[in-house]
Design goal:
With about 400 residues, the protein is of the alpha+beta class. It has helices at about 15, 20-35, 40-55, 85-90, 95-105, 115-120, 125, 160-225, 230-255, 265-280, 295-320, 345-350, 355-370, and strands at about 60-65, 70-80, 90-95, 110, 130-140, 140-150, 285-290, 320-330, 335-340, 370-375, 385-390. The two termini are about 55 Å apart.
């Protein structure tokens, strides 16, 4: 394969191609602006293909991206190519011809189109097109895609145009890498949400159903032996468990429909507090004494759901009129405190599985934060819940 080490050529001095400078600067300015606003990356790649074809004086062009398997290039846009070429070139091996050479060297490569004709047997290469240029889209040592430009004349590319193409390839390579990372992060977020939902179901509904199954077996034994008082007791246990499971399912649906505010934890807490007060009539005082909180998204979600669960317990059991929530930082630990003026846990008479599972869920979430939840309550004196967990860089690592 022939390679032109000097794509620009000494003969293409400034007077001969100075007219390219303004369009080149305009194109570079446009691509920089588009990278921060365009959501359809493939549309962006195709749009700049026409710019590159025009600036190079090419008769056609194509843009390809590396497939997820890293072994092929997929055609995402083409200009000025015959339909038979487009159909034949939908997928090509990454190592194929001039594209493969550009991917290996991470630099702009140029060759006579005979190299393309040998691999495709298409008459277009050699008859209408004399030279092909491959411009790799690269980012941090990885090739993310390739631009191809097809020229009718066997001539070098002007120096400023070659520099522009190199800059464009770096910008668009970075955009492709960012798009890949965004897809990966979306997958991770989706998997985490599904795992969280699975954990919630296991921690509440699954255990409740297991309890009901055990009680139903005892109920059957009591019926078989004719022990009516015991049968009534087990029937009452099953009824209570069914009611608890139903209420917990409704709570889970509410929690997972109520998404975290994208602005972060504090706005999300304010929203859930406002909704709670509007729904229950209970006044909530909220104070944030740690304005410079530095939490990961996962930590924010755990704190958010602990407060949400605690408020649900207040509405169901506390008979409170006022709740105070304080977010603070003491030494190297964050502190979230929630106090109500209700009747206290021992005064509610509620010791069933619903409250039990709710407390367990909060404690397990606190453990994921590397912290703990402590609840202090006296009959007639309200309840105080305190969540403590390490600040950034201080979180304890669990032992295997």
């Amino acid at each position: 394969m022939e390679r032109d080490d000097d794509l620009t050529g000494a003969e293409t001095a400034a007077p001969a191609h100075g007219g390219y400078k303004i369009p080149a600067l305009r194109a570079l300015s446009e691509i920089t602006a588009s990278l921060s606003t365009d959501s359809d990356l493939e549309d962006l790649l195709e749009r700049f293909l026409s710019t590159m074809v025009r600036l190079a004086g090419a008769i056609g062009g194509a843009v390809r991206v590396v497939t997820p398997d890293g072994a092929h290039l997929r055609l995402v846009g083409a200009i000025g190519l015959p339909q038979e070429v487009i159909e034949r070139e939908q997928y090509v091996p990454l190592e194929c011809g001039i594209c493969g050479q550009a991917a290996r060297t991470h630099s702009i490569e140029s060759a006579e189109t005979s190299v393309c004709r040998e691999s495709t047997a298409l008459a277009y290469f050699g008859e209408a097109c004399s030279r092909v240029i491959a411009i790799p889209l690269r980012n941090k040592g990885r090739v993310m895609g390739v631009y191809n430009l097809f020229l009718s004349e066997d001539k070098p590319v002007a120096e400023d145009i070659a520099l522009l193409f190199s800059s464009i390839s770096e910008h668009l390579g970075m955009a492709l890498e960012n798009a890949r990372l965004t897809r990966e992060n979306t997958r991770i977020t989706l998997m985490n949400e599904r795992q969280m939902l699975a954990n919630e179901i296991h921690d509440s509904l699954a255990q409740t159903l297991a309890y009901m199954k055990m009680r139903l077996a005892f109920l059957n034994d009591a019926i078989q032996t004719g022990d009516d008082p015991l049968a009534k007791k087990y029937l009452s246990d099953v009824d209570d468990a069914m009611e608890s499971a139903y209420l917990r399912l409704r709570e889970l649906l509410t929690q997972f429909r109520h998404r975290m505010d994208p602005r972060g934890l504090i706005p999300a807490l304010q929203d859930v507090i406002d909704n709670f007060s509007g729904r229950t009539g209970i006044k909530v005082e909220f104070a944030n004494l740690a304005p410079d909180m530095n939490l990961t998204p996962d930590q924010e979600v755990q704190v958010f759901h602990i407060v949400q669960e605690a408020l649900a317990n207040v509405s169901k059991h506390a008979r409170a009129r006022h709740v105070r929530i304080i977010v603070a930082m003491a030494a190297d630990r964050y502190l979230v405190t929630m106090e109500d003026d209700g009747i206290g846990l021992s005064g509610t008479g509620q010791t069933g599985i619903g409250m039990h599972f709710g407390m367990n869920i909060m404690r397990e979430r606190a453990e994921r934060l590397g912290g703990a939840v402590e609840v202090v309550s006296r009959a007639g004196e309200g309840t105080r819940l305190e969540l403590r967990f390490p600040a950034a860089g201080q979180r304890r690592t669990k032992k295997a």
